[in-house]
Amino acid sequence: MRIRPALKNYDWGDTSTIPALLGMPASGQPVAEAWFGTHPAGEATLDDGRPLSALVGRLPFMVKFIAAGSPLSLQVHPSLAQARDGFARENAAGIAIDDPRRNYRDDSDKPELLVALTPFSALCGFHDPSATAGWFRALGWTDLADALDKLGIESFVREALTGDTLAVPERLPAWAADLRDAHPGDPAILVALLMHWVELAPGECLALEAGVLHAYLRGAAVEVMNGSDNVVRAGFTSKHRDREELLRITSFEPVASPVKRPDNGLYPSTGSYRLVAHPAGSTIRADQTTIIVTSTGESHVLVVGESMKVERATAFAATAGTPH
After folding, report:
1. Domains and CATH numbers, the chain
2. CA-CA distance, 261 to 204, in Å (whole number)?
């Protein structure tokens, strides 16, 4: 059955990308995300008005369109054990589920996969610290280089976020200068300088496991993730920031280039889902509950024996065994 997403009007969204994808008139409001899932914070609906869960039950995953017109927060997602512990801890403290101070809105982990639909820029994971220190010195940032050599990544990040001995350089790369202009005085700029700044081409992806620090900067993408809304933030946002909790659950191990590509259409997965890109004309058979989203042009989708012409970004839910 065709499904309609729940729209999220966060201030970092843009006004045109998701409305254009969904064939909707633009309202002038930013539209940051379109959720195709059963999470209670934004459940999709069926064409007949019923919630998606009436057809498929509670899905363990969620599909989103995301359109970043300005940078998202510097953030990290918890492991399953961390999510369960944090959810129980905040419940015990009497913090309401919809309280903006909440980090843990459910007891699930949130590994996620992002696939670019347009050129997409992001910060993701930490560079090798010795290479970063060398880059700092090449730019004349001797004090930062010395601090990184002395402290290592984790202690440098802690000092940047909670201390007062590190200063943001005056002259920054263009992407970092844009962040500083958008968030003047935010010490998370210093953390961003330790991270991979990447530009994804359409079809390339980031596969984010629990603990990987990241911030999406600009562009449109499809995201697939476990059915969770757990986010711990430390910068680039007016939302609740919990720097101590982020420091506690972040992985500070450096990573190689985080940009990945599909293997025969199958994207790498870090959670309870898989994402496959099928070319036009493909025949697919769902061996479990599946969400299908058309991403480009016009197409015909066979829905229980009926051929339906659909525009781009039309979504369907198929239960196991349904040919389409």
Report:
1. 2-125+194-260 (2.60.120.10), 128-188 (no CATH)
2. 5
The model carries a pTM of 0.91
pLDDT digits (tens, 9 = 90+) for 70-91: 999 999 999 999 999 999 999 9
**Would you tell me how many other CB atoms lie within 10 Å of the CB of residue 246?**
23
pLDDT in tens, 16-63: 999 988 888 889 999 999 999 998 889 999 989 999 999 999 998 999
Q: How far apart are CA 292 and CA 285, in angstroms?
A: 11
Q: How far is CA 123 from the centre of its chain?
A: 11
275: nearest Cα among 20, 41, 68, 62: 62
The 3-state secondary structure of the chain reads CEEECEEECCCCEECCHHHHHHCCCCCCCCECEEEECCCCCCCCEECCCCECHHHHCCCCEEEEEEEECCCCCEEECCCHHHHHHHHHHHHHCCCCCCCCCCCCCCCCCCCEEEEECCCEEEEEEECCHHHHHHHHHHCCCHHHHHHHHHHHHHHHHHHHHHCCCCCCCCCCCHHHHHHHHHCCCCCHHHHHCCEEEEEECCCCEEEECCCCCEEEEEEEEEEEEECCCCCEEEECCCCCCCHHHHHHHCCCCECCCCEECCECCECCCCCCCCCECCCCCCCCECCCCEEEECCCCCEEEEECCEEEEECCCCEEEECCCCEC
What is the spatial distance between Cα 230 and Cα 242, in angstroms, rounded to a whole number? 13
In one-letter notation, the amino acid at residue 192 is A
- CB distance 221 to 159 below 8 Å: no
